[in-house]
Amino acid sequence: QVQVVESGGGLVQPGGSLRLSCAASGRIISIYAMGWYRQAPGKQRELVATISSGGSTNYGDSVKGRFTISRDNAKNLVYLQMNSLKPEDTAVYYCNAGVVHLLETREYWGQGTQVTVSS
């Protein structure tokens, strides 16, 4: 089994910053991609950012230039540095890990961490 656990959410004022962390653990041969998605109340889950094992990144249009994703492959960690936060960034942020097992690849999700941007 694989566990994916997020941390670092909280309440921040508009214009502020937060750093989210995500750790994957368990029966992992390797992780081909990790990413962050978010879901605001009444809206569909959307892409925030992804990063491959080689370091290639992809960002949602609404966060480009403000958020930065990074990862530590050796420790199966992924981070999301969020700057210039806006009220519309308020959402539950979910970590996703694409894991290589012996006979298959499979995606795993964390339980989410709440980010609230409000004055």
Task: Report on the architecture of this protein.
There is one protein chain. The protein is 0% helix and 59% strand. The protein is an all-beta fold and 119 residues long. Strands 2, 4, 5, 6, 9, 10 and 11 form a seven-stranded mixed sheet that branches. Strand 9 and strand 10 (105-109) form a beta hairpin. The chain is elongated.
List the main descriptive attributes of the protein structure presented here:
119 residues; mainly beta; four-stranded antiparallel sheet; 11 strands; 0% helix; elongated
Low-confidence stretches: none
Portion in helices: under 10%
Q: What structural category characterises the helix and strand content?
A: mainly beta
Mean pLDDT: 96
Strand content: over 45%
Q: What is the β-strand count? A: 11
Radius of gyration: 14 Å
* Outline: elongated
Distance between the termini: 40 Å
Major sheet attributes? 7 strands, mixed
Which sequence of SSEs, written as H and E, runs from N to C? EEEEEEEEEEE
- Count of helix runs: 0
Present the secondary structure layout:
Elements: E1 2-7, E2 10-12, E3 18-26, E4 30-39, E5 46-52, E6 57-59, E7 67-72, E8 77-82, E9 91-100, E10 105-109, E11 113-117
Parallel strand pairs: 2-11
Antiparallel strand pairs: 1-3, 3-8, 4-5, 4-9, 5-6, 7-8, 9-10, 9-11
